[in-house]
Amino acid sequence: MRREWVHAWLLLLPALVLLFGFTHLPAVQTLIDSFWSTPRGRRPSVFVGGANYERMLADPIFLRAMVNNLIYAALTIPASIALALAMALFVERRIAGRAFLRMAYFTPTVLPLIAVANIWLFFYLPGFGLFDQIRGLFGLRPVNWIGQPATALYSLTLVSIWNQAGFFMIFFLAALQTIPESLREAAALEGASRWTFFRRVTWPLIMPTTLFVSVNATINAVRMVDHVFVMTQGGPNNASTLLLYYIYEQGFRFWDTSYAATLTVVMVAILALVGIGQFLLLDRRVHYR
User: Fold this and answer.
1) Interval 32-53 mean pLDDT
2) Could you report how far apart the first and last alpha carbons of the chain are, in Å?
3) Residue 42 belongs to what H/E stretch?
4) DSSP assignment, residue 81?
5) Nearest to 71 by CA among 197, 212, 241, 201
6) Average pLDDT, stretch 78-98?
7) CATH architecture designation of domain 63-285
8) C-alpha span between 119 and 124 (Å, rounded)
């Protein structure tokens, strides 16, 4: 027994070393760096205590980024999940061209995020883009979708929903295929409508998958940076600045690594609290009783 125990830990050792070296150790170091100043030239870093956190609370751009992220998450999370579930329900049925539709829905997921951003830049191009060409057919004036504060953030939101809904669809599709066919037959014999079957059988049975997808959607809503970097760079006037992009700016553009570490600690804490809250609140609903 002892030999098997040692063998098991030896098998886990490479993964544990990588996990500790590239996840836990950097996380601890980031927490420590948040209490020190940024070294510059010959001036070494000094212990500043909670000064970086006080600066963060008084930073209007940070507060703007948090509000933007809340709006972004409030739109992308439910919309992505709802769209993914709708697509999965549609392509799960026996319809003509089902394989092609599944591939078409999933294609945006396999595209590089930079390529996706550049494709949508063409869609949003004022006057010549796809959206303004369609609007022109109805005599509407061109709109600078990503160049004005009123629409920049919502333009990014639409791109993210389009990009990740196909990925979530795969999980819902796999969950739908595990529902026993006998339940469908029994519901049909009882005269239950499709909506009743979905509400009373399908939805409860796929709740574990929904929880998994919602946690991933929450993480994606906080770690989005590629589309912001390519399409808007946080503009105009920080209207589309998200938290991770602001961390990137502080750490790599302004080289204020200590302040970036402070922002990172806050981001990780928010993700941890939201993730734990999702599991605690939804744990009783993920099992069909």
Assistant:
1) 87
2) 39
3) none
4) H
5) 241
6) 87
7) Orthogonal Bundle (1.10)
8) 9
